[in-house]
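request received
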Amino acid sequence: MLTLSSDFGSPYPAAMKGVILHRTDARLVDVSHTLPRQDVRAAAFWLRQVLPEFPPAVHLVVVDPGVGTERDVVAVRAGDHVLVGPDNGVLVPPARAIAPGDLTVYVAEEGDPESDTFHGRDVFAPLAADVHEGGVDRLERDGAFERTDAYETIEFPRPEREGDVVRGTVLVVDDFGNAITNVPGDWIEHHLGEAAIVGDRRVPIRRTYAALDPHEALITIGSHGNVELAVNRGRGSEAFAVGPGDAVVMTLGASGD
Amino acid sequence: MLTLSSDFGSPYPAAMKGVILHRTDARLVDVSHTLPRQDVRAAAFWLRQVLPEFPPAVHLVVVDPGVGTERDVVAVRAGDHVLVGPDNGVLVPPARAIAPGDLTVYVAEEGDPESDTFHGRDVFAPLAADVHEGGVDRLERDGAFERTDAYETIEFPRPEREGDVVRGTVLVVDDFGNAITNVPGDWIEHHLGEAAIVGDRRVPIRRTYAALDPHEALITIGSHGNVELAVNRGRGSEAFAVGPGDAVVMTLGASGD
Amino acid sequence: MLTLSSDFGSPYPAAMKGVILHRTDARLVDVSHTLPRQDVRAAAFWLRQVLPEFPPAVHLVVVDPGVGTERDVVAVRAGDHVLVGPDNGVLVPPARAIAPGDLTVYVAEEGDPESDTFHGRDVFAPLAADVHEGGVDRLERDGAFERTDAYETIEFPRPEREGDVVRGTVLVVDDFGNAITNVPGDWIEHHLGEAAIVGDRRVPIRRTYAALDPHEALITIGSHGNVELAVNRGRGSEAFAVGPGDAVVMTLGASGD
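response:
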């Protein structure tokens, strides 16, 4: 199985599929080709949520604002999975989520790509196909890969709390408009049914969107386990006027409605 | 074969695929993940058009504004097909279109899902995979399912006509901008080549978009057999200023152009 | 292998897949369903880039503004590939790119389609499936196809140069906002590191987007080998205020920055 993730939109991912299908009969599964564009941190967040759901696979990941520059090409083995992509940190959070503590990083030869602007097609797709067919072990024996400890990583900002005041950061906004923060759900779990002060509004904290009337704002715990700012049948990012990178301050312990 | 339909956008559907691929080697086919968001009636309309085109399959359908509430989880057997999703009515119109008069509804155990906000991943995806592997018969024998006659359905609004005046409702707007109504095509078929009055404009009734000059409005019969308000190489929804739920009054019998 | 390309958005492509899967177990690969809407030339450009990357396959292509009119239904054999779609020229540039000089065009019987507005489902999908199963040879012997030399083609506009002045046309804008022209990359390759005058601005000519600071405009050679107007981590189409069909005049030989 070989999954594909990118920020390419359409139709560039199809070029990668064509290249891959010359080299392998693997089942191909699209994860997403609308990852937040050239936003390595947001892509890492999403892939950390989604890739651990898969059975063992090779995961091709191309979010690569540095295409054509000196950044390395890497394969990250995480348990029985291998992630292939640019060495800009995007692979590490999902790899750690797949197999905590069981992670090896390899640098691959980039070869002499046909273009300087589309390494998804010219470098990463053939490499992912080769890893699927040969595995990193054989490729290491063949000299195509070399282990390294000097690889890029991405760290997400850490939330803080002091008494009832929680300070977090919006990491991504999903397609429903939910503003997903870095605040762990268990920081608010015992306040379910109550409310929080966010800016100058009192916002109910609830387990489900539908606990509120349509178009009412709420704070909830998303499927990723993080606190999100949401609106039942609406867009939390608009109601709270926040986007990726924005700070969020929640004062817990307000009485419920 | 297992098809997937949702209003999730990206990348949440990939999490469902990962979960499914842990449980089955079935061929997966994406129907759509951009069904009108949390609009159960519009989703039912689209799936009624598309799912009957498929050979026998398990159809996973997640348009679920009531996620996390008390709504049931159901499987609907329609002939050799099974639809799996929330009991909010979205499954019934496509099931009736697949196998009119041959429909059995089962309630499934919801179990103890990991999240309250993403039952697509935590409840429906594993259930659809299990139905694919075991069938509803075996699951019924195993006690995982129970037949029910108390299930939700969706009824589409009925169009009316009185003499030459037809009153309908826009059900959905497709990606081309065609405003698709609930008026059956055969109500206007004998007026092809003529025109209708819609609001204060005279609109040609034609078999094909290209029968009109580019950017000219027309009334036609779509591939679903319903009357639609369209513009050749343009967006009917904008030319007629209508959207889902809006009333449309057409006076037939105007002379053609 | 059977690939699918259209300008249908969603969910209409799923109806085509259902029809196809009734007739063949072929691997299905989506190329794109968001090709520029009803823009035959832009679709031909993209497919010329992407389809040659695939191993031998049947390529179903439905960008068909003339649906329901007298336009023919054609299959184009290009080497070991076959392209199936409307006879509006969209198939010929990709066919020529797949197998230059080895191209045969066949007209197919259109039959009596169920609709006048969705030949993707009613005509092209079953035909592509039949070609996948039987090949054009057998279908020609069966009388379902007839060779023709009278088929539509699309010619792209030709760029011009006179001394240091290059005159081109924007063919398409990709999802990153890069404005891709018809100017061949080798016309500017020896100016890499220098700059060009475009309108009243001096624009660096570089091998990679990341050679410039974020949000800086540049001219580069895209993965298709054509000159493109781009912005590092931004949208070239907006910075240069150009879209498909617009003229671009570049005066080369300006000194670099």
